[in-house]
Write a structure and sequence with these properties.
By secondary structure, the chain is of the alpha/beta class. The chain contains 13 helices and twelve strands. It is globular, with a radius of gyration of 21 Å.
Length: about 375
């Protein structure tokens, strides 16, 4: 039996989402831009799906939701087009050293174009404090981009507090948050959060890979990054991937079971601490991510041993592809702790059996090392 505990990397598609995608492929297969009956049916499904995602985001209107191919595209569009829309007012951007590579690489591109980027250092969990934003905020700051839930540690940054800070300071800066790991995990409402741009992704909540969304605050005008047709209000050309969109909407309608997921995280923390006393944990608020380290061990060795027991975890973001975690470096962990780090990701499809299998496998690995 497989024990999949890498849900921060991606989740198994739920039956409801798979069925919605199949229905769209076999029954609602028209092009949403076509004016005949099948096209109109496809358009109706597209817009009802948009409304479902908007409701899950807490947006005031479905028109505030733009569909993209993934969270990375949403981040790219928000940051690159957001900065471009504000360039006449300044060229200073605030972000952090603990962001996802989709944000980091977008900022690198802007830096090469002459923008000045201030990258704030996170605290010991990966959180960015509003006070650090206040200290770095300048008159020419035009964009602030901060992750709501850190994808490697589960630390939660208070985006609403950052929004209030920007408003009280009279800042014109746009506020973007990468909420890929926050969406349907911690409660927030786009209409009251205060962010101008919010990036989310489907495959983190049991929808297929290949679908994401960007919330855009009403009245904010962005330049498209993909041009051609007039789809997605002219912001993203190309025929909409209706099966993935319908699946995303179906996944949004599910009970996220946050309390049960948090209980599994707490159980894992407790069992691992009992069976592997030297384990170190990063204590964070997100219900689904637990980062632990066995200092002096190698993450790859632990992962390979766990895989031999059909237990699947990761060492950091899947996008790092084996490289050392920049997030754990940014929060100041020593190399021997970073090199022994594992990231556990829990979902509504996990059980206590998965947690028990993980703890037993780690205990077995420890026993073999101490022979």
């Amino acid at each position: 039996m497989d024990h999949y505990l890498d849900n921060a990397a991606t989740t198994r598609v739920c039956p409801e989402a798979a069925q919605a995608a199949l229905h769209a492929m076999l029954e609602e297969y028209g092009n949403p831009s076509s004016t005949h009956t099948l096209g109109r049916k496809a358009r109706a499904l597209l817009e009802s799906s948009r409304a479902a995602v908007a409701q899950a985001l807490g947006a005031a209107s479905p028109s505030e939701v733009l569909f993209t191919s993934c969270g990375s595209e949403s981040d790219n569009l928000a940051i690159l087009s957001g900065a471009e829309s504000m360039k006449r007012q300044g060229r200073h951007i605030l972000s952090s050293l603990a962001e996802h590579d989709a944000v980091r690489r977008s900022l690198d591109l802007l830096e090469a174009q002459g923008y000045e980027i201030t990258r704030l250092r996170p605290d010991a969990t990966g959180r960015i404090s509003p006070d650090s934003v206040a200290a770095a905020l300048r008159e020419d700051t035009v964009l602030v981009s901060l992750m709501m839930v850190n994808n490697e540690t589960g630390a939660v940054t208070d985006i609403a507090a950052v929004s209030r800070l920007l408003k009280s300071a009279g800042s014109r800066a746009l506020l973007h948050t990468d909420a890929v790991q926050a969406f349907r995990k911690i409660p927030f409402q786009a209409r009251s959060l205060g962010a101008d741009l919010i990036s989310v992704s489907g495959h983190k909540i049991h929808a297929p890979k290949g679908i994401g969304a960007l919330y855009i605050r009403p009245g904010l005008r962005l330049a498209p990054r993909i041009v051609g047709g007039s789809q997605e209000s002219g912001l993203r050309a190309g025929t909409e991937p209706l099966p993935q969109i319908a699946a995303f909407a179906a996944a949004c309608a599910l009970d996220p079971q946050t309390d049960r997921i948090r209980s599994l995280k707490d159980l894992a923390r407790r069992l691992i601490a009992e069976k592997v006393p030297e384990a170190r944990f990063i204590e964070t608020e997100a219900p689904h991510i637990l980062n632990l380290s066995l200092p002096g061990w190698r993450s790859e060795v632990l992962m390979n041993f766990l895989e031999s027991k059909s237990v699947y975890v990761s060492k950091s973001s899947a996008c790092k592809q084996g490289r050392r975690s920049h997030v754990l470096e940014a929060i100041g962990l020593p190399p021997r702790v970073i090199d022994g780090a594992l990231r556990l990701g829990f979902s509504r499809m996990n059980s206590e059996d998965d947690v028990a299998a993980l703890a037993e496998a780690l205990a077995e690995a420890r026993g073999l090392a101490h022979r």
